[in-house]
Amino acid sequence: MHSNNFISPKRFSHIYVEDSAKDHPKTSEILSKFPESVTIPIDSYKEVFNPSSQNFQAQKRSPKLILAKRKEQFLYSGSGVAPDFGYKFFYYNALVLNCPYNCSYCYLQGMYSSANLVVFVNNEEYIRKTEEQLKLSNPLYLCISYDTDLLALENTLGYCKEWILFANSNPDLIVEIRTKSANFKSISDLKPTSNVILAWTLSPDCVVEEHEPLTPRLSSRLKNIRDALNAGWQVRICIDPILNVPNWKSVYSESIRKIFEEIPGEKLREVSLGSFRMNSDYFKNSKKRRPDSYLFYLPMSTREGVKSYPEELEKKMFAVVQKELENFVPPEKIHKLPASSE
Question: Could you give a GO molecular-function term held by this entry (predicted)?
């Protein structure tokens, strides 16, 4: 199933509310959008989210929502498996634990034992901590949607708008909002700001169909990108991860041609390419939880604690995809993130 309007009022049968979050205005706002959900009070989100004996894929079929307050660690330093685009001060945050989608190659299924969605309602504290960090780290590049899809959740949370407005008054903060959604309309009433990057992950149609269930189709994402570009937003497209699917050369070459039939390459801020890569422990857990996915049974290398394709295959994939991209985008706008240093 592929949907452009993912979060319906009947999406969550049960919503757990942490005691510390029950009186927060955002909690009331979110609960009002799910009038049929059963609300269950809890002491801590960890008692529902952290137990190890949970069935991730079973929960994905009927995930529960958990509302909590973040009490520490509002910013994380960027990791080596995420692109920093040349910024010295690269951070990400975790406003939400888990993603509404269920991509078969996603590392989150190896990172968490639960597929339930945890939303931290105290976004204002994240913003305040970022404001403090800005005084020490300038300019600061911040990914706010790396471990989830905030734009897909925007109609429920409204966090993208809050961060865009914050970035608008803090020009030394560069915010990336990464998404596979087709929900640009939820922020289309805002004035574009040059230090907010809307970063769409794009995959070939066959990859979307087989490996990205619940996500909008490629054509829907492309329409959203066109709308964002026409409105004056900074847009990055991310072909990441490049997957070793059958006939990958022709699959990705044809997909790139399709992408640039729909969107003007000269208007893009940049294109990001990434190879398949995953922390070795997350890979091991994901393989156990996704015996149905052949992606975890392909030949892999382990380098510096990261699982990825063999180096020669990785280089070949980048070469093929970059060559096709250069028909539409200048090479200086193409950024590669290999699993290993070249």
Answer: 4 iron, 4 sulfur cluster binding
